[in-house]
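Explain the record.
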Amino acid sequence: MQFKLPFLKGKKSNEDLALIRFFIERFGYRPKRIELFYEALTHRSVSFSGSEREFSNERLEFLGDAILDSIIAEFLFQRFPDKDEGYLTKVKSKVVSRKTLSDIGEELELRKILRYNKGRSINLSSLEGNAFEAIIGAIYLDAGYESTKKIIHHHVFRKYVDLNKILEEEIDFKSKLFIWSQKRRLGLDFVVLSEENTHGTWRYE
């Protein structure tokens, strides 16, 4: 399946204007370089004429993944000043997990504007998650880091990420046991039976 690149035109088409409206409504952002956003929404299952290289969102997805990772890491670092690196890493992995990103993409209704080969069997949920990362990459290139961070906080995090739910899921079995014992006013002590350092990594039993 092959298409002509939509942005290779003298003036904005109806498709361009519809795409711009979509991003204003969903992200509060008006694209300046519209070609970046067409690329962010294009899956490799379709090909376009008029481009010297393969026109798909994979490169922008790579960039968006790194930008999103950085923004979430900074947010969690400031949000939990008393938590260690291990805790922050576990929470961040939940926030930027494939499932979370796919859920965000679905909430944003990205499938309405995705460009992919509908004749192939493709996991749309996964496609939306990847496209969301690519869009973050496009916004970063179009507007810079600070603008991207504001958009993620105000138009994505607040609307589509339930941090409290993620934190509840992150409580490990030891914490749950401690909470359970406190409610029942029971004493609870943890005893390390043995510990072993193997190639620099501590292991507890």
In short: The chain has nine helices and four strands. Residues 195-205 have pLDDT under 50 and may be disordered. The beta strands are 2-4, 47-49, 195-198, 201-204.
